[in-house]
Structure formats: structure tokens, C-alpha cells
Write a structure and sequence with these properties.
Blueprint lengths: L1 E7 L8 H11 L5 E7 L3 H8 L3 E4 L6 H13 L1
Parallel strand pairs: 1-2, 2-3
């Protein structure tokens, strides 16, 4: 199953739709993925607690590697 929301964070575990869908998938012995605009605090915890195949962000926020590359360039130029 595939589900998602604007931002996945610890509040997702408080019976928000993606958590309910993930729990339903688990009860059916199906895999589930959450695709969100962005990821907040606790993404790893959410994946573990809900038994997810993965959580992914597709938003416009820079990835950690992009942010690090930008910062490195700023420091050394």
C-alpha cells in the first residue's frame, strides 16, 4: 500500500491517516510506504513502529547532501 501526507513527523503516530493505513496494511500482511512532502522529527521511529517498508520525502526541501555541499562551498569560497 502507498499512503502519504504533507509532512510526516511524530504527530503521524497519533492516528493520522497514514498511520491508520499502515496499521491496516500490517494487519493484512501487506507492505506499506509513506510518501510525504517532507519528513520531520522521528521518521525512523515511525517506520519502526508502523512496520513500514519506507518513508520518503518528495518535497522541495534540500536533501542533507545538498545542504552539506552548499555549506561546504560557503565555507571554502
Amino acid at each position: 500500500m502507498i499512503t502519504g501526507e504533507g509532512r510526516t513527523d511524530l504527530q503521524t503516530l497519533k492516528r493520522k491517516a497514514p498511520a491508520v493505513i499502515a496499521q491496516h496494511a500490517k494487519s493484512l500482511n501487506k507492505k506499506c510506504v509513506i510518501i510525504s512532502g517532507s519528513l520531520g522529527e522521528g521518521a525512523d521511529q515511525i517506520a519502526a513502529e508502523l512496520g513500514l517498508l519506507g518513508i520518503h520525502a518528495c518535497g522541495n526541501e534540500p536533501s542533507a547532501s545538498q545542504a552539506l555541499a552548499k555549506k561546504t562551498k560557503e565555507v571554502f569560497t
